[in-house]
Amino acid sequence: MSKTRTLPITAARVIVTCPGRNFVTLKIETAAGSYGLGDATLNGRELAVASYLADHVAPSLIGRDAHQIEDIWQFLYRGAYWRRGPVTMSAIAAVDTALWDIKAKEAGMPLYQLLGGACRSGVRVYGHANGETLEETISEARRYRDMGYTAIRLQSGVPGLASTYGVSRDKMFYEPADGGLPTENTWSTSKYLAATPRLFEAARAALGWEIDLLHDAHHRLTPIEAARLGQDLEPYRLFWLEDTVAADNQASFRLIRRHTTTPLAVGEVFNSIWDCKQLIEEQLIDYIRASVGHAGGISHLRRIAVLADLYDVKTGCHGATDLSPVCMAAALHFDLSMPNFGLQEYMCHTQETDAVFPHAYRFSAGSLYPGDEPGLGVDIDEALAAQYPYRRAYLPVNRLEDGTMTNW
Ligand code: KDG
Ligand code: MG
Fold first, then answer.
1. Cα 33 versus chain centre, distance
2. Which of 58, 93, 332, 407 could form a cystine bridge with 219, CB 3.0-4.6 A?
């Protein structure tokens, strides 16, 4: 019998950088001189994960065998005693992703090959068209279509509201973490529910039916409001309607599901299989949006996707700008290898971010391709990263027009 070679971990370092926005990256090094990267960015709470990793996780990794990915995952999850939660699971995700990166580099193959090989030629993605007005949003959607996107998310300003989720000045990326203290926005569900069906009616008239359209309600509705929106959008055949309600109560999706055939997506804030077990097993959703970066890494996200596959639920990984290129690369290897991949979110990063994280993945004709470099195919330029120190940034908060706090 051949003896398995162990690969002791010699260092685990946390790199915090802000090339336009904050990113937290874990770099794990081995005795063989190889290293792997994991994204540990938790938008608006970055330093909590950085501390969790540097102060609590990193010391306990030194000397462990980098090849024992599952055992290390269980060690960090069960061994902490305190389970789940976004900080813990983002930290575990970073370790897990870095270890998969190392294993694939050691094997000399792109990660998707280790995960079972490609199930498709590329990873179809959706882009983000947004505008202050309905007209501006539709003209942005045309621009995305011209760039080759075959699926586009539409978010538009709501008449009577000063600002709306998803609408940004910069048209290639939406960057909500905008203040050294939380910006306070004002929200009206009734204004939003009146405006949104009009947006999609106009979009279908202008763009036709070939293109897939998506929308994100960003957790702002009650179940019955979500049911109403789903019904009102049915004539426009959305690819998915995302995050209608805050999904703390998974059973609340029963009510939405009972009333609408608009496909439902949820899960970008989920951090474990327990957040979506009921949603999946009762077939209350169509797409699960949990990400490699926030839901325990490749190992745990695979568990979620395997469960989802049993119930005809497809994946739709979160891919906003606050998920670093390390996370994006990991998502692409995962997407390529899973039989029940649905659609991948893709919001471009700034040139500064791309320079700090040189990567092999490429966009072409509506899809992303992870490339064939060993591992994830993404690196970090540490010298450049050091030129962009951390800047405190918060996500906005939301109040109803009468001042009541509500979901952002
Ligand atoms: O950090 C929060 C953002 O990632 C989130 O607001 C983006 O909802 C989002 C999406 O669908 O990309
Ligand atoms: Mg979303």
1. 30
2. 407
Ligand 2 geometric centre to CA of 18 (Å): 22
Task: Kindly write down the DSSP assignment for every residue of 258-325, as one continuous string.
Answer: HH--S-EEE-TT--SGGGTHHHHHTT--SEE---TTTTTHHHHHHHHHHHHHHTTPEE-----TTS-H
- Domain residue spans in the chain? 114-373
Give the C-alpha separation, 293 to 221, whole Å: 26
> For the domain 114-373, what is the CATH superfamily, name and number?
Enolase-like C-terminal domain (3.20.20.120)
| Tokens coding 381 | 């330029």
Do residues 329 and 359 touch, judged by C-beta distance below 8 A?
Answer: yes
User: E strands, 52-210, where?
Assistant: 123-131, 151-156, 184-187
- What ligand 1 atom has the least distance to the C-alpha of 128? 12
Q: What is the Cα 125 distance to its own chain's centre?
A: 12
Nearest CA to ligand 1 atom 5: 320
Q: Which residues make Cβ contacts (< 8 Å) with residue 39, sequence separation at least 6?
A: 23, 24, 25, 26, 93, 94, 97, 292, 293, 323, 324, 326, 327, 330
| Distance in Å, CA 153 to ligand 1 centroid | 12
Q: What angle do CA 153, 157, 159 make, to 5 degrees?
A: 140
Q: Is the CB of 43 under 6 A from ligand 1?
A: yes
Between the CA of 360 and the centroid of ligand 2 the distance, in Å, is 26
Give me ligand 1 centre to Cα 320, in Å.
6
Q: Is 215 an active-site residue?
A: no
* Cβ of residue 46 lying under 6 Å from some atom of ligand 1: no
pLDDT digits (tens, 9 = 90+) for 292-312: 999 999 999 999 999 999 999
To the query of whether residue 359 is one of the catalytic residues in this protein, the response is no
Residue of 41, 152, 268, 322 to test ligand 1 pocket, by largest number of atoms within 8 Å of CB: 268
Summarised one tens digit per residue, pLDDT across range 206-262 is 999 999 999 999 999 999 999 999 999 999 999 999 999 999 999 999 999 999 999
Catalytic choice (52, 165, 236, 388): 165
Cβ atoms 217, 227 nearer than 8 A: no
| The two structure tokens encoding residue 276 | 């979506």
- Residue 370 sits at φ, ψ, to 5 deg, of -75, -15
